[in-house]
């Protein structure tokens, strides 16, 4: 499947924290650059995500904000 | 201001494309790793974003999806 | 690519309306059931979307609200 | 209340899974076409959602992505 | 329609700025407290929004971030 | 940090409800006007949010919908 979301950053799963409905996944997309996702527990299971696995962090452009110091 | 959004990736603005209401901003957060944001034109102006400027791409964890090949 | 987004509804593109930065796409996922997406113009071009083409409307579960009459 | 969200798909609640803060709701909007929502537990209670009840899945157009095979 | 979105703040439309696909709407929900929405142009037209009109700014709780000084 | 999100409403934390992965925070931005946020538990801890503390509810304009009676 090819998706319209502008951002699909390839990386490695660093941590997974499972809750009742949601699961938090941390993926390192470059050395020292991590992105945290909160997805449903069933989605995490369906993708069979585990620490060390290659995965993409996918973000729609309209969900990205900009900030400056 | 310190924000709850889990993801604030520091980078350099690579491109800005201005529309009627929205503006698209591309920021490079690591060599070859780019994130695209669509924000309101007035927000881009308020932050005074320009190509080459340092900026953060900020994303709430619940807006990040995971994908695998 | 296999994505964590819980909702990927297959359908047919019914209409496309192109703006300066964004494009609005209407996809029919069942007879009389339509979903409208606003994506960046460049994403619509990258997917080569056109009226009559098969496509999926993809939505993260945390972006869906419920309502009753 | 009449809302700006472009997508309000009428259907029947098929499943409800209650967590600590969030609740997952599955609604069938056409035969075989299901949409999953994650809403706060208190919102699910306020709407008095239960399996078999008629309900709408509501999605803002800017939260819908497109994908192709 | 009764919606699951936790936040529905009643106010008065202060400004409307129409783009090609999107429209920006500013609503004052308390004296000096304004919320800006970007919705599709067709949604703004469907609601017949105009300056001075009463309207609600509706936000899903998972789309709200917290920040401190 | 100065963020592009158009909406940053200052208020007082009224309630905090902690779940396994997520935490729900209610902030009063004007007398009788409350906004509810669902953020990750670790973000709530990082901001050291507590009832009575001053905080901002931050919302991207593209995540705000409009509604009328």
Give the helix/strand layout:
Six copies of one chain form a homohexamer.
Chain A (H helix, E strand, L loop, with lengths): L1 E2 L3 E12 L3 E9 L2 E8 H6 L7 E6 L5 E4 L1
Antiparallel strand pairs in A: 2-3, 2-5, 3-4
In short:
Chain A is mainly β.
How would you sum up this structure, described in words?
The structure is a homohexamer of 69-residue chains. Chain A is mainly beta and 69 residues long. Chain A is 9% helix and 59% strand. Chain A has one helix and six strands; from the N terminus they run E-E-E-E-H-E-E. Chain A starts with a strand and ends with a strand. Strand 5 (54-59) of chain E pairs antiparallel with strand 6 (65-68) of chain F.
Q: Give, in spatial order, the strands making up the sheet with the most strands of chain A.
A: 4-3-2-5
Series of secondary-structure elements of chain A, N-terminal to C-terminal: EEEEHEE
Distance between the termini of chain A: 37 Å
User: Quick one: biggest sheet of chain A?
Assistant: 4 strands, antiparallel
CATH class group of chain A? Mainly Beta
SSE class of chain A = mainly beta
| Number of distinct helices of chain A | 1
Domains of chain A, number: 1
Strand content of chain A: over 45%
Helix content of chain A: under 10%
Flag low-confidence runs of chain A.
none
Q: How large is the radius of gyration of chain A?
A: 13 Å
- The average pLDDT of chain A is 94
CATH topology of chain A: OB fold (Dihydrolipoamide Acetyltransferase, E2P)
For the record, what is the CATH homologous superfamily label of chain A?
Answer: RNA polymerase II/Efflux pump adaptor protein, barrel-sandwich hybrid domain
């Amino acid at each position: 499947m090819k998706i319209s979301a502008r951002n699909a950053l390839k990386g490695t799963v660093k941590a997974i924290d499972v809750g009742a409905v949601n699961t938090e996944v941390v993926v390192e997309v470059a050395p020292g650059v991590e992105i945290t996702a909160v997805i449903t527990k069933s989605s995490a299971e369906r993708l069979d995500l585990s620490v060390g696995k290659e995965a993409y962090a996918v973000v729609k452009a309209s969900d990205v904000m900009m900030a400056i110091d």
